[in-house]
Amino acid sequence: MKKEIKRFRELIKEKKLIDSSLGILQWDLETTTPRKGKELLSEMVGYLSMKGYNIVTSEEFLSLVNFLKENEKDLDDIQRKEIDNMAEEIEKISKIPPHEYQEYSELTAKTQGIWEEAKAKNDFKMFKENLKKIFEFNIKFAEYQGKKDKKIYDIILDEYEKGMTTEKLNEFFSGLRAEIVPLLKKIMEKKKINEKSYINEKVTISEQKKFNRFLSEYLGFDFDRGVVAESEHPFTLNLDKNDVRLTTKYTEDIPFSSIFSTIHETGHGIYEQQIGDDLLGTTLATGGSMGLHESQSRFYENMIGRSISFWKGIYDKNIDIFPFLKKIKIEELYRDINKVEPSFIRTEADELTYSLHIMIRYEIEKGIVNREIGIDDLPEVWNKKMEEYLGIVPETDREGILQDVHWACGLIGYFPSYALGNVYAAQLYNTMKKDMAVDLLLENGKLDRIKGWLRDKIHIYGKLRETGELIQEVTGEELEPKYYIEYLKEKYSKIYNLD
Predict the structure, then answer these.
(1) In this predicted model, what pLDDT tens digit does every residue of 357-390 receive, in sequence order?
(2) Nearest Cα to 214, choosing from 325, 350, 331, 297?
(3) What is the DSSP code string of 143-160?
(4) C-alpha atoms less than 13 angstroms from C-alpha of 458 in its C-beta half-sphere
(5) pTM of the predicted model, to two decimals?
(6) Catalytic positions, written as ranges
(7) If you write DSSP's letter for every residue of 386-417 in order, what string do you get?
(8) Which of 175, 280, 281, 413 gets the highest tally of CB atoms within 10 A of its CB?
(9) Do 177 and 377 form a contact (C-beta atoms < 8 A)?
(10) Is residue 83 a contact partner of residue 283, using CB atoms and an 8 Å limit?
(11) In this predicted model, what pLDDT tens digit does every residue of 445-468 receive, in sequence order?
């Protein structure tokens, strides 16, 4: 038994080294690689992806996993969970032909560069053929699973949130639409026309970088084990808990765009840095489901970053770091960063309308996978849904169908995780407030207490515990959307003095 476990660990280490190398390539592709160098890096991604594929589909690895699975009673909890997860991964990946796996890996690496160029040129036609191939691959890979009792899109969703189905999401979004759309309408009727904005003034990139670095550290991100760079679309990459990489995007005349992107990605980064040391070197040493991961970034971005208590803790002591704030009263700032106004760009959407942006993407993904929406029709479909849910129509593809990188990366089925993340975040926030005076801690700058609570309740477990199990244990309930809806209604009714 010891011999088999030792060999399993050796092969897992080899696979993790390959995955880390792929991570570095991904980082380069999105941050520093010159445009003409992306072709080579895409080939490198395909080559290394096959190395990882060959390990987990080899007869030796399969035999090891089967043996250890049969002797699970002799394994500890971490080993048992690793074996269960690897057995599931082998079941999925071994059904994909090797040449298709490599082709898809190269396709997604290459398409990210094409997406970036298409977005810059505002030309969806440059991107659509590769996008069509990516969706076709995802549909084909789901069909290979042979789960005839499950819908194809449900199989795809399961990759990011185990057990999630279109039935559950339809019910969730239906409830959200019923509550949020009328609230949005009431707010828009109550709002003053051409309300003054205090926060969208020109701020140099160097000033923004300095303040964002301060914010990330203030929240608890450890720069001895992390770094921040720039990319067209902000993201977080973890090689392990000692190398976590964040990116943001700076725009001089929209300084709070980078501020909230940085806070969001810092939430992801803190999660990864607080994974339990006992999981280092295992396949469990990363965040849980995508919905749970997004709950941490959305919690930091919204429950903390958009609260007046958080800014009270910063204003007096640290305003010199960001002189721009001296021009604004804290009450003006609070109202401005929580201003409700339908907008085109998801990453800059206000907290209330954000999930409507996700609903649009969910309905489009589902429609494409179910062969109800064609790729050629996406700009038109997108614009119609924007008008239906948000009352606005993008004038360009850049601010419409081309704004997100996710589909270019092959992340089909990922978008619903953002909405689920909002729900998990509100549910956890509701429980946290019962355990500690959150607002008082924020006002006094004691972010370590909040970070510690999240570490002990969520972060240390990595992928050792299932999301549903953790949420049930921490909050005493299964996933419950009412806390998110109540949070939004209470917060925005106060801000806009609704009856």
Answers:
(1) 999 999 999 999 999 999 999 999 999 999 999 9
(2) 325
(3) HHT--TTS-HHHHHHHTT
(4) 34
(5) 0.91
(6) 265
(7) HHHHHS---SSSTTTTTS-STTTTT-TT-THH
(8) 413
(9) no
(10) no
(11) 999 999 999 999 999 999 999 999
